[in-house]
Fold this sequence. Notes:
Mean pLDDT of chain A: 86
Helix content of chain A: 10-25%
Oligomer: heterodimer
Mean pLDDT of chain B: 85
Amino acid sequence: MLTPRLITHATTAACALLAFGLASPQGARASSHQDAPLIVLDPAANTTDVYAFRSNHPNGEKYLTVALAVYPFEEPGVGPNKWNFDDKVLYQIHVATGDDLTAGRPTVSYSFRFKTFYKNTDTILQSYIGVVEHVADANQNLTQRYSVTKTTTAGSTTIFTNVPVPPNNQGLVTPFYNKDNNGNERAKEGATFPAALDRYTKEAIATNAQGYEVFAGQRDDGFYADIQSIFDLDFSFSGPNKSFDSQGGFNVHTIVLNIPLSQLGGSEQVAGIYVTTSRQQVRVLRDRSNGSGGTESGNFVQVGRQGNPLFCEAFVPIKAKDLYNETDPSQDATLFKKYALDPELATILGLPANLQTNRTDLAGIFIPDLIKVDLSTRPARLAGGTNPGAAPNDPGFNRLGIFGGGPNHAGGPAPDVLQSTFQTAFLNNGTLPGGWPNGRRFGDDVLDIAVLALLSDLRNPASPTLATAPADPGVDKVDHNDIGYNKTFPYAATAQNGRNHEHHQ
Amino acid sequence: MPPISFLPRRLFLSAAVLFAGLVIANGAELTKDQHVNADLFSAILAPASGHTALDDKIAKLQAKVKTTHKAEPIIVQLGWTFVAKARVTSDPGFYKLAELCAQAAESDVADDSDAMLLRGHIAHALHRFSEVEAIGRKLTSETRPGWESFALLGDGLMEQGKLVEAIEAYQRMVDIRPCMQTYARVAHIRWLKGDLEGATNLMTTAVEESSERDPEPAAWAYTRLATYQLQAGNMSGAARSLDRATDFLPDYPAALLVRAKLLVSHNKSAEALPILERAIQQSPLPEYQWMLADAAHVAGKKELETKTEDTIRLRGKSEDARSFSLFLASRHENTKLALALAQEELNKRRDAFTYDAVAWAALANGDAAQAQVNIEQALSEGTVDVRLFYHAGRIALANGEKKVAAERFARALPIKQMLLPSEQADLHEQLGRLPQSAATFPASTTDKQLAATGRN
């Protein structure tokens, strides 16, 4: 037995910062939602997932849809005060095109800043005073509003101001999120056109003269996988209580931006997307010389970053995870390419020796760590849902993208692919995956795709091998989200009802 | 153009490969390298006795160390977990185990920065501040020093009273990483420099970033915020912050101590007693015992007061020499020992509070002149701390400086709730002895600062 009282308390006393740690490395807590030691301690700035895909507006406008989600594992209904965007965090979506794409630097950045207000502070009811009939009405006591600024080398312009964030889906006080507009029912799912969206979501979508669309608010966590088994080192993903969608029944806070392709210079190109979160530096000693009591000032410093799913989580080792979050993709080739070339995961999974090293194919996907989207294709096929009332998947949609379909996978008659109109030298005259790693859609089974990519060998274009996808329900035996996605902007599934939801289904 | 496409399938690998080769070795033998450090390993791998989540984590990491070939990162991780255990239990023995982990890791990988950081943190907890500084300087001279290295360096410098250098280190730290841990450190040094409002603002930001995943630092930050609020007279704010601290850790001793102070300030000393006893069960420090003894005195619990003071006398020196010195000097007991203990502490750290302890002990020994020198040193950084002002007033009185004494008592008066009941009583008694003209002193800058922090 340990006998820890080896010394007295003398050495623990009266030391000002005694109890305050250095946020020590906490070990392998890697998943899409628990990536690096420091950022997991800062959930408001902790990005869970990034999405980017080609879409079309019902009016025919072509878009690049990008989304970032923060706050892993929001328990619905624990109290709406707990989960809100952080006024002190700078949320940014970066898009790289042309030479910037290979360099890993943004061509255009969209910055989101939030402000939180209370309509009535003479009450203990911080968030809801009564049933919220409309977004930001008097009963939505705690209200957040945000602005969006677009920055290029030419300068910055504000493209949205004062956009309201809808209420979190608490239940009876937010009935219009839910089926039959009843706070006791499950959240509505799978809207196929704007008018079919729930009231709050509709009211929280803003558009501007350039054709941008934006939404920011609570959504269901669209990532699905059996993370529990992975961290339990059980790669059979079987046993009692399985299958197990670790994220099932949890919400996140999501920002979705629809960018008209005309704002990016047209469709005949590839765009790279990544997101960052930043917090503000401070001066240790405030300038109190003017007698005002001092002011806080300082630049924003990046504390979180994400591009492709699972790169930081499944490729970057613990010692480098915080560094990943603090650097930008322009440094990926120097700092992180080695982890894509020689992935430890391939060793852990016991892959053949030739697949454990020199994975230039994986480095091509992950380095620089931007989600690359060919903008010239038709819109990506969208996921819907399987629950009663949810819109079905688009015809031809496959959660595994190019790995889906065909004789070796029972998921569909053909792989889900798209055709590029300008990368014609590629493959079969420009055949691209329908989902990740050509963009990432809501509904892409990124864990299965990542494993299949590891098992494949695409280094030699003349003799490639593509891994066989196991029959549904696939690698981790979780093959769909627990709630149907919306198939219209903002695409992310409606937030789970705090009063009626179920975990891990 | 980055390759974004997959090629048509031609050859298929079986997904069964996924499930192959996943057998995790579970043998219990140490690696060859580990045998070299068998003694170290036998200590750090001894089975834990507790049943908390931290104990489970310790057990899992110990098992992992046994079965991993290159185990240094896991050993360091185990060390940090011992640190966490030490912080939660206030049992410094776990620091020793953590230090053994650092030694074990460094014996295999010389100058391993992760192990050095761990060792530096432990040295700080064990009050070896010059060692902390040395480690911090080494870590910050690396090619790409992390914020943790500057945090460690700043911590070591601050405890030694080297505030100018500490501020520089903390600035580098927060420039690299604005986060809860860095904001909280900056808040503390602002408080040391007398900026209570700035400290409160930033500690508020820090607690907003707190996470249930790491409850002890969150509880600590909320407790510090409560202390600032209590000092500002924002009693309801302090109570709310303490509620949050104990949401994270229900029996967090530091939070219980501030809760007791809050209750005593509301003349509820009897209610404070069981809270203090709970705190002392976990952290039997003289600071806590002294508060209990005082509260027991006010509540008329003579037996508890006597018993507690006897415990301080018995164990105070070994538990916390500086606080014990203050206790002895305040009671005019064994004043020579009080002075010796304070001076010994001054050899380790030359911060405001150690200078104050030396000054107070010097006064107790009748050396008011020496006390004056030391208390001026303690006040020189501008720290707004009630005990510094109270002691400074008493020392000024002893030197016949009634106006100075009145000025310093006047600075203590608005924040007297931070004093022990016995100290508060003495403060009022001393003020009563001063001529009326000297005792009425205009509101100081400090009071304006307090008003700005939202007292209610």
